């Protein structure tokens, strides 16, 4: 099965929140409402430094995906 890079998620236990799930390395879940990120990978100390440097890029890509999806929903 081929998986998309990002998925949107919601949960009735968190009615105000929308989540973006990134399925490629490094996998993470981003809470759009709060900006919190939960990394789903275990990083070595060297990897942690790289993620801190590159993390903003991953978040920007996730938010670009989110904005694109919202536009597609509103265009329908």
Please specify the SSE layout and strand pairing.
Elements: E1 6-9, E2 19-22, E3 28-31, E4 37-39, H1 45-75
Antiparallel strand pairs: 1-2, 2-3, 3-4
Could you describe the 3D structure shown?
The chain has 76 residues and is an alpha+beta fold. It has one domain. It has one helix spanning 45-75, and strands spanning 6-9, 19-22, 28-31, 37-39. The protein has a four-stranded antiparallel beta sheet, with helices on one face. The longest helix is centred in the C-terminal third of the chain and has 31 residues, at 45-75. It is globular, with a radius of gyration of 13 Å. The mean pLDDT is 92.
Largest sheet: 4 strands, antiparallel
Task: Classify the secondary structure makeup into a structural class.
Answer: alpha+beta
> How would you spell out the order of helices and strands?
EEEEH
Strands of the widest sheet, in order across it, are 1-2-3-4
Helix amount: 40-55%
Poorly predicted parts = none
User: What is the count of distinct domains?
Assistant: 1
Output the number of helix runs.
Answer: 1
- What's the gyration radius in Å? 13 Å
Distance between the termini: 27 Å
Tell me the overall shape: globular
| Mean pLDDT value | 92
Q: How many runs of DSSP E, i.e. beta strands?
A: 4
Strand content: 15-25%
């Amino acid at each position: 099965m081929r998986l998309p890079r990002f998925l949107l998620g919601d949960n009735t236990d968190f009615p105000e929140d929308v989540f973006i799930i990134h399925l490629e390395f490094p996998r993470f879940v981003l809470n759009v409402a709060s900006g919190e990120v939960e990394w789903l990978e275990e990083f070595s100390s060297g990897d942690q430094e790289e993620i801190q440097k590159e993390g903003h890029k991953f978040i920007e890509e996730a938010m670009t995906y989110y904005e694109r999806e919202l536009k597609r929903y509103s265009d329908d």
